[in-house]
Design a protein that fits this description.
13 helices; 34% helix; six-stranded antiparallel sheet; alpha+beta; globular; single chain; 597 residues
């Protein structure tokens, strides 16, 4: 299907709309302010001198570029002179300081001009890619092409260094991103050489000589031979996204089949229930199959976003609800957990369990284990996640609808309006407060409505057939109503995930649920959900999701350190909240997976 771009979609109400408005009114400004404070914005002046504070880092350009991209999406929907001035000021500095040959990177221009394109691990092409994406977004939002032309000049420089003259000291990016950005440049300008350069970087991967830690940068094999997800999760999923883009643009079925194999490997063996990926902070990587430990889960916010980008591109290839289901899982859980409820603070890592005692076990900080922080912060030294949230939340319209000919696909549920050609669709719903959705269409011959994978009971007001996870309605009436019954479900994991054996998690509609000690008891591990599952949900606007009270048990307290096993259990009402809302009410133990008895 062709997924409808955000420009064609207007969100009106519901969970996704609320998060988009939070981003527009709070988060976009909070991120800029912290980037200004930390020197990221002023780095574009390229006037830093040795001995001064706030030395430009090799990846700072990418942080600011993602912020510009997010701000551009907002500008497409409404005029905001303040945002536009901030962007134009940064573009002024790029134009002023760009090298004569088109090169631009604030770190290397300022700190090490003689080391341009000499170190594969220094994020030059990664930063370039994000600047290109920002330039395209700003051009499409405002019609102003100055930034885009500056980036076209930069592409000329890159093409010369890597393809025609081969003066660069490496062949492919250490951190992938430019590949998908070049496809985007091609789509914006129609210039085929940008697509060819994206193909060049992908095709050369796996043939690079003398690269350490090959698997971490997905350089261990040519891309068409990579059937398993390995290495740094964000790099991997940005690359897989570019592979899917290239396969679509060139009708490369072999490359598509590779993408499908990798996607299946991730979603059947290497993904948390929240849609998070990355089992360890060591190189931020995928590890072995089913290695999904909860309290040390890395599950970086950017990794969830990158996986969502990959799923979105796969949906363009194949009209299968499995891809839209994953996008929903990430939007409501593994991505949005990276943002505080007030929109000002962020998580880089998103563990599925917090045990505060782990932070107290060692007297010496030098000899302690490392666990994720327990409260969100406003900025990180590596602050890629906050602006990534900016750009996704501002462009949520990208994920709602798709079309083929006169067929409309409803992939996500949100009060919204969309149009393409002479087709129009209006979606009225307060989802996920309820599962009732009313769809009004004009000039639509077939309407395909995703049946969420979590939904076991639903009604549709018109005759339909089920195809690839969609309810397919031919010649839909002007108004169609569907009602997805939202009830809590008890979910188990594959028994190969040893961390979850004998345990279950609770989901309610699109939400994964978590228990916090603040609502229950400190020792959450002593709580066991009743196998005769009884659960009582209620929607909490403040927590942006369902509270669920579950019948559970715990052992009666004992003074003995060890004793003969007994059946001395007592009933307990386990109170759960949306996983994404954890750590918003102070430090607290947290669990997603509980024992069952």
């Amino acid at each position: 299907m062709i997924t409808l771009p955000y420009q064609n979609v207007v969100l009106k109400n519901g969970f996704l709309y609320d998060k988009q408005m939070l981003n527009e009114n709070v988060t976009i400004h909070a991120v800029y302010n912290r980037f200004y404070d930390t020197g990221r914005v002023s780095a574009f002046r390229c006037d830093w001198k040795e001995g001064q504070p706030k030395k430009p880092h090799v990846f700072w350009d990418s942080d600011v570029a993602k912020w510009i991209e997010g701000a551009a999406y907002i500008l497409h929907k409404k005029k905001d002179p303040d945002l536009e001035v901030k962007i134009e000021e940064i573009i002024d500095e790029i134009e002023k300081n760009q090298c004569a040959d088109g090169y631009f990177n604030s770190h290397f221009i300022t700190c090490a001009p003689e080391k341009r394109f000499t170190n594969r691990d220094c994020h030059e092409l990664y930063c370039a890619g994000h600047l290109m994406e920002a330039a395209v977004a700003y051009y499409e939002a405002t019609g102003k092409d100055r930034f885009l032309k500056l980036m076209e000049k930069y592409v000329d420089c890159i093409e010369k260094a890597f393809v025609t003259e081969k003066t660069a000291k490496f062949e492919t990016p250490g951190h992938q991103e430019i590949e998908l950005a070049l496809v985007r440049m091609y789509r914006a300008t129609g210039k085929l050489r940008y697509l060819k350069l994206a193909k060049f970087f992908l095709d050369r991967r796996g043939f690079d000589p003398d690269i350490p830690i090959l698997k971490n940068t997905q350089s261990h094999l040519p891309v068409r031979e990579q059937k398993e997800a390995v290495g740094h999760c964000v790099r991997a999923c940005y690359m897989y996204s570019a592979m899917a883009d290239l396969a679509l643009e060139t009708n490369d079925r072999a490359l598509y089949e590779t993408c499908k194999a990798v996607f299946n490997d991730i979603t059947t063996k290497k993904m948390y229930i929240t849609g998070g990926i990355g089992s360890t902070r060591m190189l931020e990587t995928f590890t072995i199959d089913y290695d999904l430990i909860n309290d040390k889960a890395y599950a970086e916010t950017c990794a969830a976003i990158a996986l969502m980008f990959f799923a979105h591109r796969m949906l363009r290839f194949e009209n299968d609800a499995v891809y839209a289901d994953l996008i929903e899982r990430i939007l409501y859980n593994g991505m949005i957990s990276g943002l505080s409820l007030d929109g000002k603070s962020f998580f880089y890592e998103n563990p599925l369990e917090i045990n505060l005692n782990n932070y107290k076990r060692f007297l010496s900080p030098e000899h302690s284990e490392r666990f994720a922080i327990t409260q969100r912060v406003e900025v990180f030294s590596c602050s890629c996640c906050p602006p990534n949230l900016n750009r996704v939340l501002a462009s949520l319209g990208n994920y709602i609808y798709g079309y083929e000919g006169n067929t409309i696909y409803v992939n996500q549920f949100a009060g919204s309006e969309a149009s393409v050609g002479n087709m129009k669709i209006v979606q009225k719903t307060d989802f996920p407060k309820s599962g009732k959705i009313t769809l009004s269409t004009e000039n639509v011959s077939t309407l395909c409505i995703r049946i969420p994978s979590w939904c076991e009971e639903y009604t549709v007001s018109a005759p339909y057939t089920v195809r690839n996870g969609y309810a397919v309605i031919e010649k839909p009436e002007k108004e169609i109503t569907v009602d997805f019954k939202i009830v809590p479900l008890l979910i188990e994991s594959n028994p190969e995930i040893y961390a979850n054996n004998g345990k279950a998690a609770v989901c309610c509609g699109p939400f994964v649920c978590a228990g916090e000690a603040v609502d229950n008891i400190e020792n959450l591990h002593s709580l066991f959900i009743d196998k005769n599952f009884e659960a009582y949900p209620s929607y909490d606007d403040a927590l942006c999701g369902y509270r669920v009270t579950v019948r559970a048990y715990r052992k009666k307290p004992s003074q003995a350190l060890y004793a003969k096993y007994s059946e001395a259990w007592e009933a307990f009402d386990l109170k759960l909240i949306p996983y994404a809302a954890f750590a918003n009410r102070g430090e607290s133990n947290m669990c997603v997976w509980f024992g069952v008895r």
